[in-house]
Structure prediction request, 542 residues.
Amino acid sequence: MRGDGPESDIVMSSRIRLARNLAEFPFVRKCSDKDRIAIAAAVRRAIDALPLSSDTEYVDVAKLGDLDRQFLMERQLISHELSETEGARAVILDPQERFSIMVNEEDHLRLQVMQSGLDLTSAWKRMNELDDLLESKLTYAFTKKLGYLTACPTNVGTGLRVSVMLHLPALVATKQIDKVFRAFNKINVAVRGLFGEGSQFMGDLYQVSNQMTLGKSEETLMQRVSEVIPRLIDYERKAREFLINEKRDDLNDGISRALGILKTAKKISSEETMHYLSKVRMGVNLGLIDNVRIPTVNKLFIHTQPAHLQKLCGQKLSVSARNTERANYLQQHLSDSVDPKAN
Amino acid sequence: MKCQHCEKTATFHITELTDPNGPTILHLCEEHARTFFNQDGPPDPASALTNMLAKQLKLEKAADDLAAADKKQCPMCGITFAEFRKGGRLGCPYDYVAFEEDLEPLLVNIHGATSHSGKVPKNLNGSPERQFRLKQLKDEMREAITKEQYEVAGKLRDKIAAIENGQNEIGQNENGQSDESNEEAPNDGPPDDDFQSFS
Ligand SMILES: [Zn+2]
Ligand SMILES: [Zn+2]
Prediction:
């Protein structure tokens, strides 16, 4: 999430995932320890034989400590399931974090391609190439009738999940978000939001993804998700315009307070941080805050999460110590920022 | 308030906006909220699937049929249909063959489709039928060896090698298995047998 790419003020990131299984083995739930080890070894051999960047790293997740696993989770390079299950499992990491391959998650292979902003076409191109490369060395479980066979029937067929992460603070502030999403329910696109105590949306972040994986081509499935995005972007922009034109003082007040808290708090939770960073992010995008850049805000979203914070300090910290450390970190990175303009 | 999935305090309250009956609210602890947010499918697909299966099977099948479906077992991995219903995860690729008729209504429900129309790999040796055939032959060979029927075992070994080396796409070709007609094999159909007619 470098903060570039088209529509990057609203679209945080796009990601594509493919579920794949090796034909010679049972699915993960029926794998013996020996099977899991053999799968990991087969994937590792395949990876070593492919023309990938020499910095591509094969990480034995079973050997990682708690903090390292959580760190990879916070970067969305591995899933909670891969982090927490027992047995042989691994992740293959691209040095630029443009892709990751999870081994022995719910499926033998979960290929992920990440892209900042909205660019599903180039994300799919890279994904398709990566999948072709792996397929040249491994035999996937596949039938012409049902496509790629997966452990859960919800993923069978293409095994494709496309998701786009959106930042929609103005739709939340204008209380239009539920209405907007109800309209999208009918078209088989899943939209999820996350919010904390007291109905405060967690960072106003929403994820849009396809629900079906069977019966339509990868391109069609991606198109269904991507054609929804411009409409959501449009709604969000209109809501932002409304706030600027009709509620300017309230908007300035909210953003100014958010920045004030992030700059002056002595202890702050990650939930609260997300909440205020969201407002600051909108303020920067609307030109209401000077001297803070969007990449900085995006970085703060990730670096203030528990494992990142502890990695940055180089030690394990209690929740309370983390809240103090988080407040310090935010102050360091936001000290140059200038509040909303008074006009 | 407690987390829906464990004893910890629920600090995250997530709206699932995609439920056809309107938004539903999930109450989760930080860890389970992370799981929810990191996963890319619908929340807890296993339980959603179990519910769907339960509803659907009740509607469409009498109790006897349901019990019969639950007892079905995959000859490759040994999972029963009941176990799949409980966990929401299949045991091996051959389950799609072994439980074909039971899975079909579920696929219609989830995807509104029963057949694939996307990417096809170049290597088509990954059909579950081929794996099943190899397993059968290997089991037979092992048995022949224990019975000291070495001539039989030798023939079986040749068959296995033929499947493993040849580009024999069992279950993928319209007219697959042409050089694989084993009279004893219970699952062998006529030469023009294709995947659709497997059950
Ligand atoms: Zn929990
Ligand atoms: Zn099975």
Strands of chain B lie at 12-16, 24-28. The CA atoms of residues 2 and 8 of chain B lie 6 Å apart.
